Structure formats: C-alpha cells, structure tokens
Amino acid sequence: MKKNRSSLILTLVLVVVSVYFLFFRNGFSTISEKDNDFAVQDTASITKIFMADKRNSTVTLTKVRPGVWRVNDHYEVRSDAINNLLITIKMVSVKSIIDPRGATNVIKDLATQAMKVEIYSGDKRIKMYYVGGPTADQLGTFMLLANHRNGENYSQPYIMYIPGFDGYLSSRYFIPEVDWRDRTVFRYYPYQMKSVKVVYAGADSGFQVNILGRNHFSMENPITHQHLAVFDTIAAKQYLTYYQNVSWEVTVSSEKRDSILHTPPIAVITVQDTAGKTTEIKLYNKKAPAKDEIKYGREYVNDPDRMLALINCKDFVIVQYYVFGKMLQNAAYFSRGMR
Predict the structure, then answer these.
(1) Phi and psi dihedrals of 69, rounded to 5?
(2) CA 339 to CA 335: how far, in whole Å?
(3) Which residues, at least 6 apart from 172, have a Cβ–Cβ distance to it below 8 Å?
(4) Distance from C-alpha of 296 to C-alpha of 304, rounded to nearest angstrom
(5) Gyration radius of the chain over CA positions
(6) Can you give the pLDDT at residue 28?
(7) How many CB atoms lie within 10 A of CB 298?
(8) Helix/strand number for the chain, H first, E second
(9) Are 129 and 146 in contact (CB under 8 A)?
(10) CB 267 within 8 A of CB 199
(11) What residues contact residue 227 under an 8 Å CB cut-off, 6+ apart?
C-alpha cells in the first residue's frame, strides 16, 4: 500500500512539473526569462544609445558626463528628451505575450517598420531590441528582444508598456538629430554675463548693459557708446533675469532662409559671457500664416506670435514673442523707476 501511495505521489509531482513547463515555460502564457528582459535597471551605467530605422537613418547619443549627453557628437542633447528615454529604458515592462497565432504577423511588421535600439555600457553592448508600433488601443507597444552578444533575434515578440503610464512607447525612440538637440539659446544667471547689447534696425534706440560686478552695472548706447549717467539698477537686474532660460522652437528650411536673410533684421541681440563666449541672435519678422492674418481682433501682415531668428550666423529657427518679446526693450525701460 505504501509503495502504491509513493508511486502515486511521484506521478502527481511529475504531472505538476510537466504542466508547469508546458504551460508556464513554453506555452501561450509563457514569459521566458531570456527573451523578455528588455529593461536596464542601472541607467547610470549607460554610456551610449544607438538607434537605427529601416530607412538606414541613425542617431547616436553619447554621455559626456553625468547628466550631459551629445547627439552624433554635434550638439548637447535636450535634457527632457534623454531623461524620458532613460526612464523608458529602465521602466519598460511586459504587458502581455502575443498569441503565437498572431506572432508571425507582428514579427513581419517589426522586420519592416521597427527601430533597432542598442544600449552600451562603456564599449560593451548590454541590450539590443526592436521597437515597433502601438497596439490597437494605443496602450502598448510591440517589441522584440535580441541577444545582445551575437545580435540574433529571439522568436517571441511582446507587448510592452510602462506601469502607470497610459500610452505607447515608440514616440520616445526617434532619429532626427534636430529633435534631440538642446534648443537653449541662453541659460545665464545675471553675473555669468559680461554684457548684453540690443540694436534695432534703422534706429538709435538700442542699449547695452555692462555687468561690472554684483549690483554694479553701466549702460551705454551700443552705436555711439555714450554712457547713460542715470538708470534704474533694479530695472537692469530684472532685465538680465530674462536670459536665464531662453530657447528656440523649431528649425526653418534652408530655402526660406536665403530669402529672409536678404532683408534687414528687426533687432540684433548680442550676449558676451564671463568665459569670453559671444552669442548673437538676429531677429526677423515672420509672415503671418493665412489663418492668423486676422487675430486678436485685428489684421496682421507679420505673425503676432512668432519671429524668425538666425543664431550665430548658423542656425535658422522660429522663436516665440512670448519668450523673446520681453528682451526687446528700449533705453526708456531702464529709467522706469526714476520717474
């Protein structure tokens, strides 16, 4: 009797083990440890991220030092964009496995549309996977892991997500260099600047503020260099705070650049910092879009919300009046407290 009982127990154990391996290791509800490990928990160890799409366009993000990245060794990376990507890399999780009956179609789509992502720590590739499109409900993203050592793809794709986030993840992985680059023009505290000069087209109404020390300024006409003997230092300090976080919006195509640059700028802003760096911005009127020719109750020829700008004779971009308008003062601004 004892022998039969032991045999029965052994048989039950074998059945349980077989069911486990059949349904939890290899079946439809499988989440295999080798082919679903997308996340990199220690994002501080990541030194490079390489991405490539099916059109052979690529981008390389390289960490220069903690918190500072460069895109294609050209420009500093937008902090919000790289932080968003690193959070995704760390938090990406399996939402569900794909029914084997539909996996073939998903793999075909990934093969033709997905973006390849390679993650490095030092010179060593530590993760490689493909990011596809969103699911029908827009709450998941199709992804396929590859063996980071030999580059061979695993056979099982997954629907991935970030717990607590409602949306898809593919928009966080993108290629264009211009979308990665930092758009900051000025990021100065007042005493990091040596001088700020603003000159207007065809007018003698510009000004130059010279920062000589803490609470110590001088002002002059930027054309004649005649000094303004009396001005409101509080107004000067307030004006200099406008340069703490100034960014452009989007780039402008090169064909529009040539026609615009043949016209005189409406203003030129030049900032020299204490490290000797000089930044020059030439501002131009931007033609009002047809839909905005009548706006705010009046008719406009030029866009009332945006201007065109040439930064250091290189980057041609669109900027907002909301950001740059307060910087376009005249000399009277600095005597407002003297009245």
Answers:
(1) -125, 155
(2) 7
(3) 84, 85, 88
(4) 9
(5) 29
(6) 41
(7) 8
(8) 7, 21
(9) yes
(10) yes
(11) 218, 219, 220
pLDDT in tens, 34-81: 789 999 999 999 999 999 999 999 999 999 999 999 999 999 999 999
Tens digit of each residue's pLDDT (9 = 90 or more) over 313-325: 999 999 999 999 9
Write out pLDDT tens, residues 158-205. Answer: 999 999 999 999 999 999 999 999 999 999 999 999 999 999 987 667
Instruction: Using the CB atoms, write b or e for 209-244: b if 16+ within 10 Å.
Output: bbbeeeeebebbbbeeeeeeeebbeebbbbbbebbe
Residue 205 CB contacts under 8 Å (≥ 6 apart), including other chains: 330, 331
| Rounded alpha-carbon distances, angstroms, from residue 280 to 49, 120, 261, 311 | 32, 37, 15, 6
Record the tokens describing residue 35, joined without a space.
């082919």
Give every CB contact of residue 328 below 8 A, 6+ residues apart in sequence. 198, 267, 283
> What is the DSSP annotation of 130-176?
EEEEE-TTSS-EEEEEE-TTT-PBPS--EEEE-TT--S-SGGGS---
Please tell me the distance from the alpha carbon of residue 246 to that of residue 242, in angstroms, as a whole number: 8
